[in-house]
């Protein structure tokens, strides 16, 4: 078995989650390619060195340009804020490195399109790329996709997606980079709305064709992180709501917010179809609910514990009933990415998939800017 | 204690529910006015006589015009399809009868406005009127309103309302009157959407100021009830989705559908505010969930069993933990209507409230007819 | 259709619940015999007259002996504390009246056996009797019995029954009759333990053959209801726990307590068998949970909403998804009792069934008095 | 920071879980002592070598005696079946190695007592030992203990513990070592009953003083793993039920079974006290339910998501709402064991704690062998 030398750019929340994946994936999955945690890149040398020590990287660096072109790197894993994704990814792809990039793919549609094109070109040379919609790889979500593909819900009538957080309810919460449009692109929309839109499309296999949306910034000024006595403007949305239609005729509602008091990280997705329904809720992440009307008057939503060895990804882990946690989606992502590289196939979600989500985010922003006017996707 | 002689028009589903209320209300509540189930009115003499016998009415009749002007009637209770509400209610009010009218108040905004005006005029003469949004009187819903009024959620950020049914999923389900625009006005929109819009406004005390909506008829032809070998056109919506804003600055999503497979009668209402959240779900109708962040890191959604004697309406019934059912909302409605008559006050929801909901339904239809364009309410 | 003239003895909590049943049963069910609420009997003339007025009885009386032998009474409904059951029931049966008696059937095994014998004798003359284990008639519980009888769980391995209340947690709660052995016989054991034991046997069709039990009185002195400055001894148990075996080989645990803080009236019953499991919880009384392993890796506990017209008792009521409440069990009980009288059959649970429960309660008390020593039932 | 060289004996289910802990603990926690995965010991050289490669151990060996006395080992981690625990642990302690031993501590009370004595002697020389009741270290369970210690429930009235599995429901499931008394000591009793008994004592801080129990083997013959055409006798219990009392006056029920169809790994623990209740359920392992009556008529069981940085162990992981899984208990166990070694303190649960559980298991077996006769603990 050969190895793949990973360079990871960024070492905050996502960096820790990705490190956990690179550290453990080959201990549970037969990936055909052992990852080496070669180099961690950050802007501040001292803090990067500390993070590298804690997270277990072989070395650290501060110049990502040098690293992504280095002969000693096979995979570039981008865990930085969205404003830097395009530049890093384009350079890495140009250097022939496989690229795993956190979502949203970019901060603008234009950047995302460029990245998708570059990824498609690189794929001709066997260079693989993937965007990090990790929630796809929660076993219950993957099972939801499998079951819908097998016909478990029939013709889809409704998709109901919510991603609810509450970390901004307090107006004294500081103006972090995620609240600044130049860094983050958008707010709840791109950070968590992107996930719920991706999950809706991923699980159903349908594409959203049009949207009507509204966004809102409930708290417009917040204290600066470095100097709480001063405040700055919040330049992104706090919340987004949208209606949508899919190419399969489904009627959808979506919501993403950081102001749903008490809902820490509640991703809710329900699909109702002509022959059944499926519902997922990340607060109970090892469970998928399934309603099958063929049980007649003994029908009811079944609480499937997605911990059986026949469920996606589960055989690698623990016995039935011994659930997984948030981080396992990252391990599964690393597994799928490494497997694709080893097998010479293109993994999903591709940069093209990521760009399509970026177009969706763009359409939502456009609709929200025009009083929820209907905005069609190409 | 004096009595109030009730004439009820209509004896189907709603007629049975209202009869249960008139039969029992004074056995549990001190209403100051004992209802007499005087006369039941229906179109077909035989079937009306049978219903009167079953439901316990003193006599039956087929000519509502005669009944609503009779000296032997004090209260007219309208349980017919929406296309007849206006005519009956206007005649009854003109005859000085107190009127309880099922929702939606009418099939058109014009009719509803006429009814509201007539009710306001009649009120000057001590004639009372009320529209039957009974879900307001589920104790958990009434408690939700009380708690919001007391500040339990603070400034409201989000309202999330769904009314999900599934009785039309089967395309062989027949073309009943509720699927015909001339009888029912609209489909899921007016039948159940009206309820969830009313509940959102009732519990929060806020008014919806604008909407963007879509409606859909998934199954456009259905067999005729009397001759299943022939089919007819469904002329109402099967489902409605909407975004909305309130005068209090909340961002809302609403959905009403008869195609949510497995969701028999799921009314879901969640309100997130700056200082708390409340959530109700009719499948668990004796419970109200409350999140209070002041519990610090021991906060969590509390499952309040709304069966304490201090909760709205509950003292009249059973000990704590012995829940109520669907029909009790009708008993509470009769209690509040009779009490208002006895006390000489105007009950709520008034016909004016009913007309406001009708304007909302009209705005939703208008928006849905214009590709979800934003439609403001006056 | 003929009528049955009912005399009810007692007008407290149970009296109100039974009145609701007699008032409404024939409005929803075709019972073949219309109940007349003829006479209400209580000890205090004034309070009984008030209760009769409120609850809707035609007349009231204070001498139960006179009433139960009156020619103007067909049914005697006993809603008094347990110490009076035997005397009243024996007199009524001797007078040829049909008798409905609240549970537990009596305060002692000896009384219960006498009552069972009297009821069996009376049955030869067409006199019917029944004991009021109303929770059997919650639709979800009746469905549980049906499904087990049909093989939904296979060979039963485990029965897990709990009846949890919390109304005695406060040591200042007064010394009501339910806490006095001479009136109530026992405490949690007979009041609510009797229910959970009955439900376990009713749903599974199995009989308990032996028990090991413990009881406890956590608060031994309480203020007198009429003079809180004085206190008296609690002479019944506050809580009971038991292990048991059934004639079908199941291993059981049971618990009944008035000290489960936060559990107002939580009846929990779970049955695990070789081919499935069923679970009921009265806090969610319109639901039955069913696990069917034949769904393979898509198996999960199904949340069956027991509101379909094909479910027991449900067709008489509201459309699917519109749940029932606590009181409906009493209506169903009246329906089954009246139907049995009209059809000339013996209803269940019979006094013999009630006496068998009394033997169980006796065995539990005996075991608890001997440090949980195993106590076999005949 | 110095390192601790770990030798792990056994590489099946528990071996994989412990490896995950040793591999990751220092990446999330500041443990003062970095574990080195030095040597993995198994009986079969080939399979051990494969496991060592997969799990990431530096070398493998087959002679545990040599390893536990080696100068190159600091910690011995025992993950073998219970019949070997005593011998290995005694040797390791004698050699001055810190010992982490899986539960149950031993297969007999005598062995467990020997181990506890040896551990106490070793502790005088700074040698640390700990038994692997990992469920204590699920954050919600640790929080439950904290809250009870702080008075969140007041005087404890009831403890209700169940550990329900269903992996033996199928009679064709093979006769693995866990079903053989000579290897496993007991069945559900020692394997999972030990956990629920430990959790009850751990969270409440009380000790069980007496028990009455029954055990059952529902399927007495099973196919041999290596030759399914032949069968052998199951020599352990399939299920255990028990009543118990604690030194704090609580009345308890316990159940452990491998025959609860549909319950894969459901650990349920509820504690009711004079001033509140707490409930945990491993199927929803990131949640603790708390009932606080001081919320008055707005009281209800609060669903606390135990994912806040102030909750036990949580700060090391992900943001609020991003839950943990089964394996994290093992990481926390490694963290606490390493921290104790580094700080020179004795970790808990100690071998003495493990022996106390063994005495409990012995008392349960004794009671079950004498028809549930009450059996007191010293």
Automatic annotation (TrEMBL), chains A, B, C, D:
Protein's UniProt keywords contain Protein biosynthesis: no
Residue ranges occupied by any Gfo/Idh/MocA-like oxidoreductase N-terminal domain in the UniProt entry: 5-122
Pfam families assigned: GFO_IDH_MocA, GFO_IDH_MocA_C3
Occurrences of domain GFO/IDH/MocA-like oxidoreductase (ranges): 143-278
Keywords linked to the UniProt accession: Oxidoreductase
Domain of life: Bacteria
One MF term in the entry's GO annotations: nucleotide binding
InterPro entries: Gfo/Idh/MocA-like_OxRdtase_N, Gfo/Idh/MocA_oxidrdct_glycsds, GFO_IDH_MocA-like_dom, NAD(P)-bd_dom_sf
Keyword Lyase: no
Gene3D superfamilies from the UniProt entry: Dihydrodipicolinate Reductase, domain 2, NAD(P)-binding Rossmann-like Domain
UniProt cross-references to PANTHER family, sorted A to Z: BCDNA.GH03377
Protein name: Gfo/Idh/MocA family oxidoreductase
Biological source species: Candidatus Avipropionibacterium avicola
């Amino acid at each position: 078995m050969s190895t793949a030398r990973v360079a990871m750019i960024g070492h905050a929340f996502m960096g820790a989650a990705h490190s956990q994946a690179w550290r453990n994936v080959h201990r549970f999955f037969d990936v055909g390619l052992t990852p080496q945690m070669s180099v961690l890149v950050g802007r501040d040398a001292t803090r990067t060195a500390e993070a590298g020590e804690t997270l277990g990287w072989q070395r650290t660096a501060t110049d990502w340009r040098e690293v992504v072109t280095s002969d000693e790197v096979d995979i570039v894993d981008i865990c930085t804020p969205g404003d830097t994704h395009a530049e890093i990814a384009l350079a890495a792809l140009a250097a022939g490195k496989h690229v795993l990039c956190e979502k949203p793919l970019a901060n603008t549609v234009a950047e995302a399109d460029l990245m998708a094109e570059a990824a498609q070109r690189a794929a001709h040379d066997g260079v693989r790329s993937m965007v990090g919609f990790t929630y796809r790889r929660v076993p219950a979500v993957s099972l939801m996709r499998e079951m819908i593909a097998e016909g478990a819900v029939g013709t889809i009538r409704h998709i109901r997606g919510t991603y609810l957080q509450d970390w901004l309810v307090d107006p004294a919460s500081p103006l972090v980079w995620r609240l600044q449009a130049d860094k983050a692109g958008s707010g709840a929309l791109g950070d968590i709305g992107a996930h719920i839109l991706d999950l809706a499309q991923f699980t159903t296999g349908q594409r959203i064709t049009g949207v009507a949306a509204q966004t809102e910034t409930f708290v417009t000024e917040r204290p600066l992180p470095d100097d709480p006595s001063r405040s700055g403007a919040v330049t992104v949305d706090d919340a987004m709501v949208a209606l949508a239609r899919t190419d399969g005729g489904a009627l959808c509602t979506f919501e993403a917010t950081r102001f749903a008091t008490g809902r820490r990280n509640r991703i809710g997705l329900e699909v109702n179809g002509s022959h059944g329904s499926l519902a997922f809720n990340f607060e109970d992440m090892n469970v998928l609910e399934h309603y099958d009307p063929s049980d007649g008057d003994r029908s009811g939503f079944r609480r499937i514990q997605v911990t059986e060895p026949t469920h996606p990804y589960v055989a690698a882990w623990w016995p039935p009933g011994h659930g997984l946690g948030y981080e396992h989606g990252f391990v599964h992502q690393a597994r799928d990415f490494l497997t694709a590289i080893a097998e010479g196939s293109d993994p999903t979600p591709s940069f093209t998939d990521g760009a399509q989500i970026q177009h969706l985010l763009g359409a939502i922003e456009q609709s929200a800017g025009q009083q929820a006017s209907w905005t069609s996707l190409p």
